[in-house]
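Exercise 7.
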Amino acid sequence: MSGLGGLNKSPNGVVIGLVQLQLPVVETPMQLKAQTARIVEMVGKARRNNAGLDLVVFPEYALHGLSMSTAPELMCRIDGPEVAAFKAACMAHRVWGCFSLMEFNPNGNPYNTGIVIDDHGRVALYYRKLHPWVPVEAWEPGNCGIPVIDGPKGCRLALIICHDGMFPEMARECAYKGAEVMLRTAGYTAPIRHAWKITNQANAFQNLMVTASVCLCGSDGSFDSMGEGMVCNFDGTVLVEGSGRPDEIITCEVRPDLVREARAHWAVENNPYQLWHRGYVAVQGGAMDCPYTFMRDMVNGSFRLPWESEVVHTDGTSCGFPVPTRPHAADNRLAEAAAAIEVAASHGSRGNAASAASQFNAMTAASPRDAARTASPFDVAATASPLDAARQAA
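Solution. The predicted structure, written as tokens, is:
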């Protein structure tokens, strides 16, 4: 299946490279600039490492390190120089790339954002982490849902970030939207190793979906990230697994066509289908209802755990953050998100993209700061060559 890391690539194979990037220290704008250049360099290394590579994936916090700083001078914008450098690198090396950035938010805390750029230098997927790793992270909770796009060679591709993967609902949502390959980027440190492995495998098996996951690696003098790049096949078996060596690039060939085949032809353990067709041997079509109390309660806004009043940590004060006073605003979105949805539509993002984009525009029209931003920063053509643009931006 893995074809020796893609060296023996099949006609239907998609080769993914997971970069166990050395955990950086980024505390100043100059360090941010230098780290941007390093990631650009690693895109080239990944391509040289495997000529058949289709997608290179960098971990969460690859650009910012684990300082958790929300300093405005370190926050990125989707139309800023860091993303421009990543776009240029993907164009230059004709490879898709998955990147992490902490995104400036004028209406609250920054977003923990993940993007996928195609081999023509366009942002194909734009995602904001739905589940920040509380109480350690202060990022704004994501509000763009989980997009699923047509990725390299037409594979249906989704992205989640780190702690997202501890919620089985996240992987199920990806599969429900058609994802055949789910990326998971992370900055996790060694204590999470066991949970990381079992959730990557469970997310794959429960959804008949390939999972490709990677963490930062090495030490920054304070924290020790674990690396642990791994690709799990849709039956939950581990195809390849990395070590704890910083900057190791783990490559694996995956077969989205076999995911489609399994979803169509499996009987036993075809769990995504059977969730909504319970007991179809006994009753025609199976039971198509919602027997899950927590799902109904979430929808009607009455979700409450039996032990809710006993939970001790309900804010970030244990990690030095002040008690928040601002309620969550689901319409706290930037104009860039509308442009991201428009671009994703050309890559097959599920749903009515035109309607979604108009909703985003309506939500952001009331904000002069947002309206003044570039309407579609993803389609701006570079005037220099891709390599020159990458060097200049970095």
